[in-house]
């Protein structure tokens, strides 16, 4: 059961002017695919059911839904008037409502229903409202279907944005508006009801989707996901990273995972539907899509994996058999370097700028470009006492540091961290853990095409654009060889956000998802081979050894690449 606190009291819709509506209209064949995957079929008695379209636009979903509903009435011997309560569609824009009504009525008329009845029904089905703040529809819907708007919350006027956040607790951080549409749509489902959206898939992987992922994992079943990044799914060209998600109010069951190519179209969509709604015994690979069934799905707030079904199955197997990289038993830790909030003040290459004691050698991304650490001579102007309990240094002890910071005081005080803590106006955003400087570590740039660990012997402190791995147990040259491999890269590639061109956005949360064998389970010859691969940056050698260590057959290489 969903807790009684869901939903919170709905606030009044604030009237604070226009907003960006984030309209992206869906191609007809993609809509038909979504309706098929959701099970909105004419052989069901659709007139007895309720289907919600929460952001109907000009009717891209409504027209196909009306056609199926009209066909269903004929199959079940019903007059179309019996379907007066079968569709509930809303849109914020009055002109969209008018166009959606006309498109829906035209569909009914084309299906042979009387014109006056068609207009009365479409007028009743479609209304101007804000789905997130309007009528309470909890537990009423058999289907929630559509393409929610793509709008960052910071682009919404402040009072409306605040109202959305109060109404939709899953819209945390820098969320997109569609997170709220998922939440309210899911709450609208009756038991066994199905939501099917096409939407940017970033919520599955980014921090702002954590609460939504938990909500789904606690109360719903992800039945189908179809990644459509390379498909021309919309009427206009947009960089939206779309995916279809089919979610049901039920206990979690097996999941159909599909990944499409630019070859996908109406005919291929039909093949995908036939596989997904059939016996599903064996994975299917075509030039247009790969599809397979996974026996289980993830719960909790952690990022969901992405990739081909074969890749996800392999990841699931490795996660079942091996512990994660960050492990208190081995003292292995993943972290990120210092964020200053003002690199132009805190980062310098002038070794005489302030007292030498207050200059901390700083590792920068540029120092790792050759895959071997080459310090570029940058320092952190360090405001933190070497004794952690003392916090910031007393500037009276360092007159040159005081003069330097006071010359930059107006700049430093404008930062958010200084406004929150005015007495600590000269602090960096992150505290500095001085013990980390002298620890050997593996460094990883925050954006890279593939895993590229670089050994740093324990001289420099990492900058914010670098992630690091330290360990009490692992020899870092052995661990570095393992993390260099395509097997380790597979984990990050599966969980991390990908930029245009395939560049991976490395973050600690994704690196922590890497699973590694226990060190004691790795033979001495394999340790030596990993060390050699790391020292020579031999990716293929590292991968070959990793396949053996993880117990993977050679044919797994076709999935890993």
What is the CATH top level name of the largest domain?
Alpha Beta
Helical content stands at 25-40%
Shape: globular
Runs in which pLDDT lies below 50 for 5 or more consecutive residues are 1-22
**Proportion of strand residues:** 15-25%
What count of structural domains?
2
Supply the helix-strand structural class.
alpha/beta
Number of helices: 20
Determine Rg (CA atoms, Å).
28 Å
Number of strands: 21
**Major sheet: arrangement of strands:** 3-2-1-4-5-7-6-8-10-9
Task: Look at the structure and name the CATH superfamily of the largest domain.
Answer: Vaccinia Virus protein VP39
Largest sheet entry: 10 strands, mixed
* CATH architecture type of the largest domain: 3-Layer(aba) Sandwich
CATH topology of the largest domain, which one?
Rossmann fold
In angstroms, what separates the terminal alpha carbons?
A: 42 Å
Mean pLDDT: 90
Question: Can you walk me through this structure?
Answer:
With 561 residues, this protein is α/β, with parallel strands linked by helices. It has 2 domains: 28-250, 3-Layer(aba) Sandwich (Rossmann fold); 333-396 and 428-560, Adenine-n6-DNA-methyltransferase TaqI, Chain A, domain 2. The strands form 4 sheets. The chain has a 10-stranded mixed β-sheet, sandwiched between helices. A 4-stranded antiparallel β-sheet has the order 11-19-15-17, with helices on one face. Strand 20 and strand 21 (504-505) form a beta hairpin. The radius of gyration is 28 Å and the shape is globular. Mean pLDDT is 90; it is low at 1-22.
């Amino acid at each position: 059961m969903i807790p009684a606190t869901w939903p919170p009291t709905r606030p009044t819709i604030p009237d604070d002017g226009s907003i960006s509506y984030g309209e992206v209209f869906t191609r007809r064949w993609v809509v038909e695919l979504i309706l098929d995957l959701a099970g909105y079929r004419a052989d069901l008695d659709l007139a007895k059911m309720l289907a919600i379209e929460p952001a109907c636009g000009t009717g891209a979903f409504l027209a196909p839904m009306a056609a199926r509903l009209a066909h269903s009435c004929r199959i079940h011997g019903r007059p179309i008037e019996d379907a007066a309560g079968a569709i509930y569609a809303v849109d914020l824009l009055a002109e969209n409502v008018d166009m959606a009504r006309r498109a829906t009525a035209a569909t009914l008329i084309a299906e042979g229903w009387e014109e006056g009845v068609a207009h009365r029904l479409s007028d009743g089905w479609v209304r101007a409202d804000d789905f997130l703040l309007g009528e309470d529809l909890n537990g009423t819907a058999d289907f929630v279907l559509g393409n929610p708007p793509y709008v960052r919350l910071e682009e919404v006027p402040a009072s409306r944005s605040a109202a959305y956040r109060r109404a939709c607790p899953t819209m945390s951080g820098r969320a997109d508006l569609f997170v709220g549409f998922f939440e309210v749509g899911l709450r609208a489902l009756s038991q066994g009801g199905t939501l099917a959206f096409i939407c940017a898939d970033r919520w599955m992987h980014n921090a702002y989707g954590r609460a939504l992922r938990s909500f789904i994992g606690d109360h719903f079943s992800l039945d189908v996901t179809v990644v459509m990044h390379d498909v021309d799914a919309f009427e206009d060209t947009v960089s939206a990273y779309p995916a279809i998600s089919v979610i049901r109010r039920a206990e979690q069951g097996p999941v159909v995972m599909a990944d499409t190519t630019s070859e996908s179209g109406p005919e291929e969509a039909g093949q995908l539907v036939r596989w997904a709604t059939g016996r599903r015994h064996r994975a299917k690979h075509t030039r247009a899509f790969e599809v397979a069934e996974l026996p289980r799905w993830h719960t909790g707030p952690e990022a969901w994996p992405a990739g081909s079904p074969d890749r996800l199955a392999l990841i699931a197997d490795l996660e079942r058999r091996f512990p994660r990289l960050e492990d208190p038993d081995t003292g292995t830790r993943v972290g990120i370097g210092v964020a200053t909030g003002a690199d132009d003040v805190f980062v310098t290459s002038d070794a005489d700028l302030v007292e030498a004691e207050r200059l901390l050698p700083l590792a920068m991304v540029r120092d790792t470009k050759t895959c071997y650490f080459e310090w570029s001579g940058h320092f952190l102007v360090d405001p933190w006492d070497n004794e952690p309990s003392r916090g910031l240094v007393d500037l009276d002890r360092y007159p040159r540091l005081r003069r330097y910071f006071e010359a930059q005081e107006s700049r430093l005080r404008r930062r958010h961290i200084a406004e929150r803590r005015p007495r600590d106006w000269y602090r960096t955003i992150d505290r500095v853990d001085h013990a980390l400087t002298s620890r050997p570590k593996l460094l990883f740039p925050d954006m890279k095409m593939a895993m590229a660990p670089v050994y740093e012997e324990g001289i420099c402190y990492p900058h914010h654009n670098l992630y690091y791995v330290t360990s009490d147990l692992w020899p870092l040259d052995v661990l570095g060889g393992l993390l260099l491999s395509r097997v380790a890269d597979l984990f990050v590639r599966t969980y991390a956000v990908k930029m245009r061109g395939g560049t991976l956005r490395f973050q600690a949360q994704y690196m922590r998802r890497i699973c590694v064998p226990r060190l004691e389970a790795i033979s001495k010859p394999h340790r030596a081979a990993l060390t050699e691969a790391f020292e020579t940056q031999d990716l293929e050698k590292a991968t070959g050894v990793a396949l053996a260590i993880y117990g993977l057959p050679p044919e797994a290489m076709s999935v890993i690449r």
